[in-house]
Each structure stands twice: as C-alpha cells, then as structure tokens.
Amino acid sequence: MAFHAEGLVAIVVFYLAILAVGIWAAWKTKNTGSEGDRSEAIIVGGRDIGLLVGGFTMTATWVGGGYINGTAEAVYVPGYGLAWAQAPIGYSLSLVLGGLFFAKPMRSKGYVTMLDPFQQLYGKRMGGLLFIPALMGEMFWAAAIFSALGATISVIIDINVNISVIISALIATMYTLVGGLYSVAYTDVVQLFCIFLGLWISVPFAMSHPAVTDIGLTAVHQVHQAPWLGSINSLDIYTWLDNFLLLTLGGIPWQAYFQRVLSSSSATYAQVLSFLAAFGCLVMALPAVLIGAIGASTAWNETEYGIPDPMTKKEADMILPIVLQYLCPVYISFFGLGAVSAAVMSSADSSILSASSMFARNIYQLSFRQNASDREIVWVMRITVFLFGASATAMALLASSVYGLWYLSSDLVYIIIFPQLLCVLFIKGTNTYGAIAGYLFGLVLRITGGEPYLYLQPLIYYPGCYPDENNIYIQRFPFKTLAMLTSFFTNIIVSYLAKYLFESGTLPPKLDFLDAVVARYSREHMDKATLVKSDNIVLNELAPVNPRHSLTLSSTFTNKEAFNYVDSSPELSNTEDN
C-alpha cells in the first residue's frame, strides 16, 4: 500500500482543528470562575454547561470509535446483522433510564463524581473498592479505542500504526490536561460534527459504487452473503437479552456519563441532556448501519480489495474504513477517515478525564488528603491525566487482548457498580457490610463464568454452554444478569441482617469494625444541638413549629403534675413558707 500524502494532510488538519478548540476552551476555563474552585471547574465545568454543548458532549461520550466501528461490523458480519447491533438501542435506552431515574437525584445533591454517594454512605474504603472496576472500565475503554484508531488509519494510509496511536493520544491528553471538562466538551462539539458530516458524505458515494447491490434487496435476500438484517437464533435469545441488559443498565454507572450530568446547571437540565443524547446516539448510528449494510451488499471481487472478502480475511472489524477506502473517491475516503479519528478521540478524552477526576477527588482528596488545597488537587488531576493517558496508550500498543480486558471490565461495571448505585440511591438501610458482600459475590460469579476473549475457561458451567473453535466454553445462560441480581439482593440481605444483629444486641458493638451500623446509628441519634451545627443540616429545611393560639401563655408552659407534686410535698411547702 502506497503512502498517501493527501490522507496525512486531512488527518493533520482535523487534529490541529481539534487541538485549537481544546486550547481555546482551556483558555476560556482559566478566565472564568474563581481560583478557589478551579478543581471543580475542571471536573464538572463550573456546573454551567448549556443544553447545546451539553447535548453534544453527552452524545459524543458514547458515539466514539468503538460505537461507530462496532455498529458497522455487527451489521456486516453474516449471521448477525442489524438484529445483533445492540449498541444504538441499548445505549439510547441507557441514557433515557439515566435521565428518568438517576440524573435528578445525583445532580440535586450536588455530587462532584459518581463515587461521592458511595463514600458518603459506605465510607472511603468502599469507595476505593468501587474505584477499581470504574477505573478499569475507563482505562481499558480508552486503550481499546486507541488500538482501533491505529488499525483504522493503517487501512487507508500506509503510516506506522504506533506513531498514529501515540500522536492521537498525545493530542487528546494535551487538551484534556490543560482544559478539563470544558476542553473535552467543546472539542466534542467539533468531533461530533466531523463524524456526522464525514460519514454522511461518504454514504452516497459508497452506495452508488458499481460493485454494490441495492441494500434494500440484500436486507432480506441472500446475494453475496446472508441478509444484513440478521436474525436471532432461538438458542441465542438469552445471550442476546443478557448483552442487551448489559448495554442498557450497565451503560448508566459510568463516570463519563455522570460527569456530564453533574456539570449541568440544574437537575432538570441534566435530565433533558440525557434525553437529547439518547436521540443523538440513534441519529449518529444511522450512517454506521448503512455502511455495514453496504459492506454486506458488495461484490468485493469487483473492487480493488479483491478476494477473499473482509470476513474471510478476518477484517470484519475494519469494515467501515475498508468501505471508505475501496468504495469512495480518494478525497471522500480521507475526509471520512478524519471523521473516524475524531470519533475515537471524542471517547478517549472523556475516559481519561473521568479516571483522573475519580482518583483526584475520591482517592487522593477524600481518602488521604482531606485538607488538600484546590491548587494541589488541580495538579494531582493534571498528573493523573498524563499518567492515565500514557497507560492507555501503552496498553493499546502492547496488549494483545485489549478488547477482552474491556469486555471484562465493562461487565464488572454492570455487575458490581450498577446494583451498588441502585442501593445507595433508592434502597434505604443498606450499609458497608452488604456492599462488600454484594461486591464479592458479583465478582466471583462473573469470573467463574469465564471470558472467551481472554481465553478464560469457566469454573461454573451453566445450562446450554458449548465449546468454541478454541475449546473455550461459551455461556448461553444469562449469567451476567444473574451475577448482577445476586450482587443486588446480597447487598440488601446482608445489610439488613447486620443491622438486626447489632441493634438487637446479638453481636456486641465492638464487632462493628467498619463503623457501619453502631456508629452510624449513634450519629443519627445525636442531640439536637449537635445536629443543628452539622453542615449536613440546612436550617430552612427544618419543619416550622406553629404555636397553638387556643392556649394561654401560662398554660402552655405549666406542668400541672409538677405543681401537684410540689403542693403534696411538705418539705418543699416549708421551704416556700420560709
């Protein structure tokens, strides 16, 4: 493959434009707000992100390289097709559910990160435990999309994959480093516009290529391969449901989502942003679906790609850049490539910022340095943005199974963090003992279910499992959802059991080593003077006391029983006489 100078120029132009917008947004951040809340401005943008920018940045959080490339791949792969392209519907429903049930309680309580309510209710230890799957999800996701970017660029222009990954990661890390959420949000607007324009410009050219059959015909009839609408085998229904619930419910407890929710100017705005982003995810998936359908409708032996087809060459995951390269004019393909590159960075920068935000606030500040200055927190965030960006880049270059690690970590977000989030927001009475038990049960059930991408054999063989070509057993049973439900109910049962055992006296208070029941009960029953002085109590929220006007002042403050006791006491009577 020859080196294409035009393609390199197109990518450089896209990257410079995005970098310029990111630096401008960083300058804007520096000149707004006070120095005292600089760290909060970096994490949640000063809580003044508007509807337009907020809608774009929340949409771009999900509409990244993995979303675009993955949707096109699912539609293209024979035997799967559109029926298995679950990401557009799954993530859109995730945003709708997040807006309906989670955005308002999180934003109205003024949290700064997703982990704040966990540390508030369960303590800093539990917050640290929940940080692990949250960090893994963000880091492996960033690494996976950096890896996809290198492969995408190498399809169209013959430059070193490692160089393209490193340069892309440096640019994304640079503007995130200096501008925080403002830079991420404003570059998301540019990136989303690039994706929309670049892919929609490419679709008509690809569809009109002589080697492409009418996609309406290939949707239901087998021409070059199985119909791209796809179907769901009766044996795979439970697997389909398991994956769909993972996308829909597991797409909620991500810091990248809640960072946008918490940056909204009000709880109502946070809900509206979620609904706008849900619509945006559906709209942005349309060109990817069409490109996947075009790939399934193409006689590849009539193109410069030749034979065998991408599926046979095991390049199905690169069907989108392949369609851009071989079915579109050269300048259109380069423009589309720039759009895909922009899509990758729009997700990578969000993940890097999310990971550094949680570490700086929930681990460094709340767990170790409660009295840290705002300037210190800002520098911790900058250092961790660089470190996490470098780590994601290294994993993208060195790890051979980044996608497998990301699948596993995203499962842990669904199985561990989602049920904990339900409990902390909606189930009254849960405590740290239940949270730890639910965490461990969910983790054990997920690991023992195996992971084909990591060649991890299951220890528990659920009904319907079968070996693949590598003799790794595949689970048909929805064991991920089972693990999530087990984690949820374990949290509730163990929490109430621990509360009963301590409050009934069955267990002595000294055994409450996590201070989750006895100490918490004591805090809730402090005297009124202490409660009023607490920062957690707002005086204007206390119930007003209305006087009883039917009673006289003297009768209101007269204890008749006390006077009767005084009259009947000879000692007190003599005292009064004296």
Name a few traits of the molecule:
single chain; 578 residues; mainly alpha; Sodium/glucose cotransporter; 2 domains; two-stranded antiparallel sheet; 23 helices; 2 strands; disordered C terminus; transmembrane; transmembrane helix; neurotransmitter biosynthesis; sodium; symport
Q: How is this structure best described in words?
A:
GO terms for molecular function: choline:sodium symporter activity. It is a single chain. This protein has 578 residues and is mostly helical. It has 2 domains: 5-426, Sodium/glucose cotransporter (Up-down Bundle), CATH 1.20.1730.10; 427-525, no CATH class. It has helices at 5-30, 38-44, 51-62, 65-76, 87-108, 116-122, 124-156, 161-207, 215-218, 237-250, 255-262, 267-296, 319-327, 330-368, 374-398, 402-426, 432-447, 479-503, 518-524, 528-533, 553-556, 560-567, 570-577, and strands at residues 466-467, 473-474. It has a two-stranded antiparallel ribbon. Strand 1 and strand 2 (473-474) form a beta hairpin. Residues 524-578 have low confidence and may be disordered.
Whole-Å distance between the termini? 116 Å
**Overall number of strands:** 2
Q: Bin the strand percentage.
A: under 5%
Molecular shape: globular
CATH superfamily of the largest domain: Sodium/glucose cotransporter
Could you list the spans in which at least 5 consecutive residues all have pLDDT below 50? 524-578
CATH class of the largest domain: Mainly Alpha
Helix content: 55-70%
Largest sheet: 2 strands, antiparallel
CATH names the topology of the largest domain as Sodium/glucose cotransporter
Count of discrete alpha- or pi-helical segments spanning 4 or more residues: 23
What's the mean pLDDT score? Answer: 82
**What is the radius of gyration computed over CA atoms, rounded to a whole number of angstroms?**
29 Å
Task: Indicate how many domains the architecture comprises.
Answer: 2
Order of helices and strands: HHHHHHHHHHHHHHHHHEEHHHHHH
Structural category: mainly alpha
Tell me which CATH architecture of the largest domain applies here.
Up-down Bundle
The spatial strand order of the largest sheet comes to: 1-2
Family: Belongs to the sodium:solute symporter (SSF) (TC 2.A.21) family.
Main location: membrane
GO cellular component, one term: perikaryon
Transmembrane segments: 6-27, 48-68, 80-103, 129-157, 163-182, 189-207, 237-257, 269-298, 318-344, 377-399, 405-427, 439-462, 482-502
